[in-house]
Amino acid sequence: MAELTSIPGLLERNARKCGARPAYREKEFGIWQSWTWAEAAAEVEALALGLIEIGLNPGDHVAIVGRNRPQFYMSMVAIQSAGAVPVPVYQDSVAEEIAYVLDHCGACMAIVEDQEQVDKVIEIKERLPGLKDILYVDPRGLRKYDHSHMTPLAEVQALGRAAKGRLEDELKRRREALDYDSTCVMLYTSGTTGRPKGVVLSNRNIIETSKASAEFDKLTEQESILAYLPMAWVGDFIFSVGQAYWCGFCTNCPESTTTMYENLHEIGPTYFFAPPRYFEERITILTIRMEDAGAFKRGMYKRFMELASRVGPRILDGEPVGFMDRLKYAIGNVLVYRPVRNRAGMSNVRVAYTAGEAIGPEIFDFWRSLGINLKQLYGQTEASVFITQQPDNEVRADTVGVPSPGVELKIAESGEVFYRSPGVFVEYYKNAESTADTKDAEGWVATGDAGFIEESSGHLRIIDRAKDVGKLANGALFAPKYVENKLKFFPNVLEAVVHGADRDFCTAFINIDLTAVGNWAERNNIAYGSYQELAGHPEVLETIQGHVEEVNRSLATDEMLSGCQIHRFLVLHKELDADDGELTRTRKVRRKIIGEKFHDLVTALYDGSSSVSTETEVTYEDGRKGSIKATLEIRDAKTVPVEAKTLEAAE
Fold it and tell me: For the segment 578-599, what is each residue's pLDDT rounded down to a tens digit?
């Protein structure tokens, strides 16, 4: 059917078939506001007409900068309806990052949220001759601005309603011109190795992928999701636009980024996605609360969680479990598991996914032991997200599942994973060379990840980024991400960066979690004035050393990765930050930049120094630059000789 070949077409279908059902909800001023599919269609039509009225042409690019709000999701569909291309931008991007994206895509308009985002765009507008109009949602603080090229989004919609009789046929013509091969959205990569690339995704990419993945997990119009992840990230686009429009379910937007947890608890979504960091943070918060609880509650929690870790995943997967264990688990569900799920906002979750980077096995098993159907998927922006998914009852911590419907996989001789699917991107915008390097003439895409397919199960196992996997000087395998995820299981560890390629042994940078370690300091009456002061406290270093050595003991049992044990480490004097270029906007480690920026620390880890003095440039929230100085202690960690492991196995 023609209506199923574009997102605006899906909107028309939903307005006709389930027009009274909620399409969007947003909490504003403490009250949940709702838009039905019929109301959303009317809002989109008015905005599309308004955009045409103020000069939007087919093929133009329109940037969108702000947090998750129904107005922005409807704006993206309105832009598509007018034959143009929406380009979501990370809302926490600094002005320079926004300038690059808007200049690269040649955006003629920018739809932004509030004064903060308006200020960023105004700062760079002179460098963007193609940018003609700034449209904004929240007028607070903007009354005295020059409005010669600034217009409230609501006013553009009013213009559209007034021009309906005159422009209705033009809008219809543009909508009917949309087909499967029309561009649906352009999303920029996170840029872990360089400048972000504009990934062009067609209606075919988004709709075929949404349809296949929805059928895989039996998603229906009854689902409810919370849209809180960046709109510029492909996962949010697939879940909040692709699947939402294909299935006709409701997308809920939190009141603000700070109320996300509270709003999650209120909505109780049935379908949920979060990156590994989210699940790590929730464990940290839970651990802190249990440490503050009374002895009886701590003891009960510990006892039932030990049971859950042993039988919870087996019960969830329908495997045989003894009657007494089932009975105890049922009691634990009433006393512990259900309250924890409820507090995490996951009481109604039927399907939950995590992706973006590898999740620590301990973290993954913890949530599944509570009865939450948490699964892993493997995907990329270039794949319209889905490459592999885990079928129910085939969920494991050490794989990322089987190929998603319609996806083909192959492993190159180098170990790199390749895929081909209907979701494969059209091209990198204005970058034919990178497109050719990534996608061959037959449609096979290089993922940049190293892995292998298990013969027995058909599941894909990802080892690490292909460029990060290497060898130690003695030839042992080096896979830093695997080790980093083990470290991040501990609530006290926020981030870790492991070094070791072509060296004699592995070392690590550690970022402490200020929330968890700060809570510990308060409970122990330890005063501190900054992150740097707390990170260098002797007791904190001792605790982190214990975590490192526990990870070493775990690695020693892994025949493939036993050589990745950490011999020396230091706790960084600052948190790794996207504003400082050390992380991407999706919180991925930029290894090359970190290695160059902290080369003096890496050198000290390997030259036997017991401490190192350093000075580091930092970026403050207002964009100003500064520097911090520190003297860091370098510690040796106990390792488990591989020979000892072999003897134990022999015994």
Answer: 888 888 877 788 888 999 999 9
Task: Retrieve residue 229's tokens.
Answer: 């992840």
Q: Which residues belong to CATH 3.40.50.12780 in the chain?
A: 2-266, 276-463
Give me the pLDDT at residue 647, please.
Answer: 36
pLDDT digits (tens, 9 = 90+) for 568-583: 999 999 999 988 888 8
Does 390 or 623 have the greater pLDDT score?
390
Q: 215-228 pLDDT, tens per residue?
A: 999 999 999 999 99
Contacts of 158 (CB under 8 A, 6+ apart): 46, 50
What's the topology of domain 276-463?
Rossmann fold (3.40.50)
- Contact of 469 with 450, CB cutoff 8 Å: yes
For residues 618 and 625, the answer to whether their CB atoms sit within 8 Å is yes
Number of other CB atoms surrounding residue 517 within 10 Å = 27
Fold of the CATH domain 2-266: Rossmann fold (3.40.50)
Residues 450 and 416: beta-carbon distance below 8 Å:
yes
- Phi, psi (deg, nearest 5) at residue 477: -65, 140
Give percent helix, percent strand, percent coil of the chain, each to the nearest 5. Answer: 45, 20, 35
**Token pair listed for 151:** 């217009």
CB under 8 Å to 480, separation ≥6 — which residues? Answer: 464, 468, 497, 498, 499, 500, 506, 564, 591
The values of phi and psi at residue 133, to 5°, are -135, 145
53-96 residue pLDDT tens: 999 999 999 999 999 999 999 999 999 999 999 999 999 888 99
pTM for the full model? 0.81
Count CA within 13 A, CB hemisphere, residue 443: 12
CA dist., res. 421 & res. 389, Å (int):
14
Q: What angle do CA 152, 158, 159 make, to 5 degrees?
A: 95
* Dist. CA 424–CA 402, nearest whole Å: 17
Q: Which two tokens stand for residue 568?
A: 């020396």
Tell me how far apart the alpha carbons of residues 268 and 147 are, in angstroms, rounded to a whole number.
41
**Segments of the chain assigned to CATH 3.30.300.30:** 470-650
Q: How far apart are CA 230 and CA 140, in angstroms?
A: 23
Mean pLDDT across the stretch 22-38? 95
Q: Kindly report the length of the chain.
A: 651
Nearest to residue 17, comparing CAs of 27, 33, 3, 2? 3
Q: Are 552 and 638 within 8 A, CB to CB?
A: yes
pLDDT mean over 174-201: 90
Do 375 and 364 contact (CB within 8 A), yes or no? Answer: no
Query: What is the structure's pLDDT at 191?
Result: 65
Tokens encoding 357: 């980077």
Query: What CA dihedral angle connects 395, 397, 403 and 404, to 10 degrees?
Result: 60
Token pair in block for residue 318 = 């329908």
Q: What is the CATH number of domain 470-650?
A: 3.30.300.30
Half-sphere exposure of 94 (CA within 13 A, CB side): 14
Place of tokens 């992928």: 209
What is the distance between the alpha carbons of residues 278 and 580, in angstroms, rounded to a whole number? 22
Locus of tokens 């078939």: 17
